[in-house]
Input
Amino acid sequence: MSSSSAAPVAKPSMREALVSAAFRLFLERGYEQTTVDDIVALAGVGRRSFFRYFPSKEDVVFPDHERCLADMTAFLAASDEQHEPVRRVCDAARLVLRMYAENPTFSVQRYRLTKKVPGLRAYELSVVWRYERALAEYLRGRFAGRPDGTLRADVIAAAVVAAHNNALRSWLRSDGVGDAGAAVDCALGYVQREFGAAAGPAAPPVRIHPLPGGEGDRPDDVVVLVSRRDAPLWRVVQELEAALGRA
Output
């Protein structure tokens, strides 16, 4: 007769224990009323252990962002010329979503807490800025040969962060219900449609070629419009109107 036993449950790491203790106290007492001493007492460790993992009480609220930022930086560094740059930074932003989606309950709790504490909102803005800077630095390298490269990189990086955060916060406000990935994909798809084509080598999207008309016609009475497939419709219409206006 054979017997089997359940696999032992892995003991949470000290880092996880500190985060768990911190959020339990934040929810029970409030963030401002909770001290580092309170957190370490509940976790059963010393102050030195806390500061080995977290430089400050604010950092325990965002325990996973340093890892995520490192993953994003490595992901962008592994890019090559075959990667379309706007799509690449959109894919990099999805790493942040994955981090939030790994633990929806914790992510929603953090969102609610951050909304209530001005100091945490300021801290979160600094974290967001670091993500945006990482995206912009990658794009600056990809657009280095363009006269507007720096501007383009900064604008696209800001747009990616804004689109990602708009969808992410909508999901968090719904208490983590629904498909966060689909919402973020939709938002980032908008950025790719607006900026993806423009990220390629500069080239006039529309060309107007006057053709000679028949006898008695003016030379520019007939025009042929040649457009890149990815040229936005408004640009095509604008060029056509301009040509007809000149005619």
Remarks:
- Residues 198-208 have pLDDT under 50 and may be disordered.
- The first helix runs from residue 14 to 29.
- Residues 206 and 239 are 7 Å apart (CA to CA).
